[in-house]
Amino acid sequence: MTKRSLTLSLCLPLLLGACQSGEPAKKSGPQDAADKEHKDTPAPAPAGNPLAALGPLTAMMAQNLEQPGPYDAPIRSKDFNKDAPHFLTYDLKGSFDDLAPVSLFGGAGDLVELRGVTERLRKAAADPNVRGLVLRFDNPQLDMAGAEDLRAALITFKGAGGERKLACHTDGATNIAYYVMTACDRIGLQPLGEIGLTGPQATPIHLKGLLDRLGVVADFVHVGAFKGAAEPLTRREPSKEMLATLDAIIQQIYDSMILGLEQGRGIAAADAVKIIDTGMFFEEAAVTARLVDKVAAWEDFRAESTGGALWSRMKLKESNSPGGFDIEKLQTFLGLVPVKRPTEPHVALVYAVGNIIDGKGGGLIGARQEIAGRTLSAALQSLAADDKVAAVVLRVNSGGGSAQASEEIWRSVAALKLKKPVYVSMGHLAASGGYYISTGATKIFAQPDTLTGSIGVVGGKLALGGMLKNVGVDTYSLTKGKRAGMWSPMTVWTAEERAMVLTMMEDVYKVFVNRVAEGRGKTYEQIHELAQGRVWTGQAAMAHGLVDAMGDLETVIAEARIAAKVAADVALEVYPPEPTLKDMLEGLAESSPADLLGRAEVILALAQVRAELGPGAVKSVIETLSQALQLRQTPVLAATMLPLSIQ
User: Fold this and answer.
1) Beta-carbon contacts of residue 239 (< 8 Å; ≥ 6 apart)
2) Which residues of 357-375 are buried (b: 16+ CB within 10 A; e: fewer)?
């Protein structure tokens, strides 16, 4: 988020206690209502829709709430006709991710599914009446790999010969959002706005101090010099190995930013370095630096960019039924009609996102935010047996988790590959177990800024005895047998017990390395040299032979279609599918208490992390704590615990 350079405010210390500087809080009003748009997320409710919190069933009836009220800004030009030449507009806002979690009682908040946007851009480009797109950048939250996917989709939208125009406008943009904007033909900046290209900053988040306050001891061992998976839980600062890893990560983002300036704005690399070292460009200074083309209000910029042509706000997904109420979708949700699947040979897109866990997890609902070994393996086996599925694209966005579940999924991928091509598309993070499940594929694609590798294992447990004692709970242990208390959640390991766990982990590490060596056509020694838990960027991973090529998700899907001889206009089958009521109820039955994540101290810490570092940082912290809690059932993890904020 760009920091506003000037804040005009009246400080009332007697009433408010203190006057805080920074970006003013946004107040709701008519303009906010006009900005509410339909989002193509698994939850049928659009982000920002008032009925989103009531769940998918009610949200199906909320289409007409998208229409503007009497005091809202218009969503289309006067006399708009979709069958006449026109432009589209779209507000690019919210947090972007591969899949949005859903539940029976809640929507996805402001989370936007990345492919919902890229697929809508593809459909818009296929419409001969669409002459261009005017994007309004409203502080979108993207990781760098997601930004690369979106930027590639925008370039594809324009066409090889620039058949469609792409104009972009912002109140202010910083590193990653501006990188996406370099795909635009024209960039407009709101008066009193600024462009902040300060260069990337990585902020690793260490949680040992929080665990100390809770009375929790993280007792971990790891295999590999670079396997710092437990560092955020066991250290208060990064090790030298982790600092080297983080330096490589931000160097790749820095290189991508410079390349974006070169390709999109025609700025030489040396000048791009000077721009980044300068950092902030206010109003006309951004024009002089060639970072934007014009300082203008949004409405004026839109009018100039469309040249007076008709325009309409783009929705990510249109209803198939008159009046906006989709009766067929409702029937599917209630289980009255089966979920539609393509009936001709097609490509299946399978999402594998979140922590890798043992068992069935939360079923199809859980599959939107976790990778359950049994659930995903069953889906892959079904696709292998279906003759109508000609190829599979496995979209991996995971820092890993259970080593045993990773092996289970690897076996299913290997069996699937014997019958049809399996292409992996790596998102922001496909490391440790996330890389494990990828390595048996036919071909692996990543983005330059993907984080992958981390071939190693970690084991440990959280000793909670101190936390219970802090709240007045005393526990005692009566045992029979020398190792009876080895997996007690109350105490740390003895030195002898830790050595036993390390021996088990070394065996798992050897299996992991052998799986990679087999999949990549290399020897054990070659992979071991690249492994030891080291995290690589996608670009570096390709240089070392850990991935095959660079490419966004749409590129991977296109390659899979070519390999399977499937036409580009044949529908994809997507897993997990949109949820039914049965899926919702099964997921609800499998849900579990928040445990440590529900502690008041943790909730307060997460709120402070969100306030200072943003929602992405909170998500990574929650994932790390969730991985650590897995150790109560899974003693060895192929996991990358990397709570990290990159800005």
Assistant:
1) 228, 231
2) bbebbbbbbbbbbbbbbbb
Copy the structure tokens of residue 546: 């850990």
Question: Residues 207, 212, 218, CA angle at the centre, nearest 5°?
Answer: 70
Q: What is the mean pLDDT of residues 324-328?
A: 57
Residue type, 433: G
pLDDT for position 202: 86
Strands 279-282, 573-575: pairing is unpaired
Question: 214: closest CA among 591, 614, 625?
Answer: 625
- Which pair of structure tokens corresponds to residue 343? 């009936």
3-class DSSP assignment, residue 134: strand
Dist. CA 296–CA 285, nearest whole Å: 14
Is the pTM above the cut of 0.85? no
Task: Evaluate whether 227 touches 506 at the Cβ level (below 8 Å).
Answer: no
If pLDDT is split at 50, 70 and 90, which confidence band does 495 have?
A: confident
Please write the tens of the pLDDT for every residue from 125-169.
999 999 999 999 999 999 999 999 999 999 999 998 899 999 999
CA-to-CA separations, 419 to 144, 173, 341, in angstroms, rounded: 34, 47, 20
Tokens of 379: 């889906």
Radius of gyration of the chain (CA): 25
SS3 assignment for 497-563: HHHHHHHHHHHHHHHHHHHHHHHHCCCHHHHHHHCCCCEEEHHHHHHCCCCCEECCHHHHHHHHHHH
The pLDDT value recorded for residue 491 is: 76
Contact 272, 261 (CB under 8 A): yes
Give the model confidence (pLDDT) of 353-399 as tens digits: 999 999 988 887 788 889 999 999 999 999 999 999 999 999 999 99
Sign of CA dihedral 170, 176, 180, 184: positive
* pLDDT over 90 (residue 638): no
Residue 183 · residue 135 · CB < 8 Å: no
Q: What does the pLDDT look like over 226-269, one tens digit per residue?
A: 655 678 888 888 888 888 889 999 999 999 999 999 999 999 99
Sort 447 into a burial class: Cβ within 10 Å, 0-12 / 13-18 / 19+: buried
The answer to whether the CB of 299 falls within 8 A of the CB of 191 is: no
H/E stretch holding 608 = helix 600-613
**With pLDDT > 90 as the criterion, what percentage of the chain qualifies?**
52
Would you mind telling me the total number of residues written for the chain in this entry? 647
Name the one residue in this structure whose structure tokens are 């060639």.
Answer: 290
Backbone angles phi, psi at 66, to 5 degrees: -75, -20
Indicate the pLDDT class of residue 104, thresholds 50, 70 and 90. Answer: low
- Three-class SS of residue 97? strand
Residue type, 271: D
pLDDT at 456: 87
Tell me, what's the pLDDT at 26? Answer: 39
Six-digit token string for 592: 């579990």
Per the listing, tokens 């920002």 go with 48
**Residue type present at position 38:** H
- Residue 140 has phi, psi (to 5 degrees) of -65, 140
d(CA 539, CA 537): 5
Vertex 116 angle, CA 114 and 120, to 5°:
125
* DSSP single-letter state for residue 24: P
The span from the CA of 521 to the CA of 498, in Å, is: 34
Predicted pLDDT at 38: 36
Q: 403-417 vs 495-520: helix axis angle to the nearest 10?
A: 20
**With contact defined as beta carbons under 8 Å apart, do 100 and 325 qualify?**
no
Sequence-distant (6+) residues with CB within 8 A of 143 are 176, 428, 449, 616, 646
